[in-house]
Amino acid sequence: MKGKLYLEDGSLYEGIGFGSIKTCVGELVFQTGMTGYQKILTDPSYSGQIINMTYPILGNYGINGEDNQSDRIYAQGLVCKEYCKTPSNYRCEKDLDTWLKEMDVPGVSGIDTRKLTKKIRKEGTIKCVITTEDVSVEELKKLCDETILRNDYMKEASWAGEEDLAPYVQGNLNVAVLDFGIKRSILEALQKAGCNVKLFPYGFTAEEVMAIEPDGVFLSNGPGDPAEAIEAIGEVRKLMEAERQDGSFLPMFGICMGHQILALAAGGETYQLKYGHRGSNHGVYSKETGRSYITSQNHGFAVKAESLMLKDMEVTEINLNDRTVEGMAHRNRPVFSVQYHPEAGPGPKDGDYLFGKFVKLMKGQEETHEEQ
Predict the structure, then answer these.
(1) How far is CA 151 from CA 45, 70, 215, 270, in A?
(2) 136-186, pLDDT tens digit by residue?
(3) What's the burial of 230, exposed, middle or buried (CB within 10 Å: 0-12/13-18/19+)?
């Protein structure tokens, strides 16, 4: 079947349709990862987005039941140069086309994805329509023009339940997880670090969180514009200011959306990047360790560095490509965060030590840079 990708500027890309027979509107983004398409598609942070994969072939190792990062595909659609119809891998259970059909997600192949990426980099965020149906250009234009893209998906992106939290080990630290659309690999990383996790979906209150007397609070990744999470920002501010029975402050650790919400709760500001950071090879420099790391990233917004200067927060890590804020820490409290994904899934494991840092803060242990 035929597939089409219509951009809001009137550009039309025609290719071969696969996956579900469907038409969807979304934000067109590009992802530079060479592997991990299953984990990318099931990351709730991609809610409302149509993913253009720059690597030229997808599906060559198939799909399996273990690599999903959530309960389903959250992306609106998939664009690729070529997809493999006959995958070969010992873990493979089904091919990409079959899986997209089951998940009711359309895909279009036969597109020059790197040319499309250059267009996104030049023009910035682009609204588009992906279709595998017999829809005219006029109808695509009308649908694109009339659809307003949402930025508040984090309010409904929580997916995990108690049945999803079978621990790797029985931990001795209780962590309240503020779930804005968490990835399974983050839950696994926390549990492997010795944490028992209690999830709080969007709509939580600081009082509910404090009622379980947590050893620490973790703020997850999630989709959309962090400034839209007004209720959550207010509750996180209360948690940052709350004192425990011994007079100490709660250790807090944020990743991606969680990092941005912590910044807003502290009085900082965020802004939308021209085309976002999405890939597995972003260089980051840590001022704390004096080292550089390769990181996995997926975000369209960033924290304004200058907005933190008078807010008791300091920038601890920067992006080596565009100097954007990649990490921050509170000057007087055990609160820190990073913009990237230290748990990877997919991507490098350079930042995996941060979960150990969080554990040490909860245990009241000082950490030296040499230990990192």
Answers:
(1) 11, 20, 32, 14
(2) 999 999 999 999 999 999 999 999 887 777 777 778 999 999 999 999 999
(3) exposed
Q: Render pLDDT for 72-87 as a digit per residue (tens, 0 to 9).
A: 999 999 999 999 999 9
Q: Both tokens of residue 74?
A: 């959250």
- Residue 213 class from Cβ within 10 Å (0-12 exposed, 13-18 middle, 19+ buried)? exposed
Q: How far apart are CA 198 and CA 176, in angstroms?
A: 5
Torsion sign, CA atoms 364, 200, 350, 277 = negative
pTM for the model: 0.95
Q: Known catalytic residues?
A: 256, 341, 343
Round to whole Å and give the CA distance between 28 and 126: 5
